[in-house]
Amino acid sequence: MEGNERWQEELHLLGLPVGPMPYDVAFHQRRPETGGMRVEINGHCDSRFEGVLDVFRKNFEDRGDIGASFAATVEGEFVVDLWGGARDAAGQEPWVEDTIINVYSTTKTMTALCALLLMDRGELDADQKVSHYWPEFAQNGKESVEVRHLLAHTAGLAGVEESIDSSDWYDWDKICGMLAAQAPWWEPGTRSGYHAITQGYLIGEVVRRITSRSLGTFFKEELAEPLGADFHIGVPYEHFDRIAELVPPTEQPGDNSGDPNSVAAKTLGKNMIDARDSATEAWRRAEIPAANGHGNARSVAKVQTLVANHGTAFGQSLMTPAGCERIFDQQAQGVDLVLGAPLRLGIGYGLNSDGLMGPNERTCFWGGWGGSVVVVDYDARVCMAYVMNVMGSGTLGDSRGASLVHAFHELVNA
Predict the structure, then answer these.
(1) Residues 176 and 250 in one domain
(2) Per residue in 291-309, pLDDT tens?
(3) CATH code of the domain in which 115 resides
(4) Owning domain of residue 266
(5) Tens digit of pLDDT for each residue in 312-328?
(6) Pair (30, 72) in one structural domain
(7) Contact assessment for residue 215 and residue 233, using Cβ atoms and an 8 Å cutoff
(8) pTM of the entire structure?
(9) Biggest alpha carbon distance in the chain?
(10) Cβ-count burial 4-34 (b if 16+ within 10 Å, e if not)
């Protein structure tokens, strides 16, 4: 996380089984800074996790949340499912149970899971060359790039070289064609450089070549629908009226090196997306599998509980434990060329490092621009997810989600 605050301190999580003892939540407060807006928190949580409700409330009181949701599962069962506040910046429309929102890069975990599912079925080999599935990719020094490089941000394609219009991100074939023709910005496989937007096209095109389905369609049919998850990569128009309004951050992600030719500057500079575009029909309907997934904490947790519970979740056995464990095959470790922060990366997810995400090494995570986050402790069979509408400036989450995860870690072992 930005600032490397170690998510406030070591996160303690052993994952003891928790019985289903939910109680309803109804909390009201007034926000003077929004003209007396009435904030209501609803949902349920196991009685052991009342402290999580307290932290969720404090995010509204002290950390600027307007609308948000948090959910957690243990052993494949929901023990916390909270939502509250308002879905719009003016505070006029309540955030309700089925409100959804653009979660930016938390979407990457959904895209990675599509690839992992194909790997588990034997249809995709992470050690195979990308060009085996996508022949046009073998251009300009990319002949030896492997699928695992795409999944671990080590392919050298962190951004698009030439200047494009924001509308070009909605043209799948154009972006994939540009990436296929482009030379890598560093030697593939040697370093990570956060593929902020491009990763979704790269993995998505491999999935499309194998399955003859777009990434969004494959995700819907093979993961979201079987698990009953209200998460969309490419949102059908009929769901638009449930989408919360994102409040853009005060600062855009950027490169502080002062070098306009750095990998970070080229990735986060001229072709960086604008948070205001999230309110447009074109953005919502497009499939941008690294950035424009829409859901809430419950739906994020529903999908990622498949990993936390070793391939079985909500009555569906979709993967083997061995297939899930591929996530923890370390691919890179060190200071990321784009984010400028130390990262340890596996197959499609960030990996726990030095206890940052808790005591269990087999813990994976990812976060989205503005603050959303999902954390999976594989050994404890725990999944936690947080989404919100007020965007911070961080690219991989911030203190709001971190505080909730930290509180849950403490309480699950209490």
Answers:
(1) yes
(2) 999 999 999 999 999 999 9
(3) 3.40.710.10
(4) 109-285
(5) 999 999 999 999 999 99
(6) yes
(7) yes
(8) 0.91
(9) 60
(10) eebbeeebebebeebeeeeeebebeeebeeb
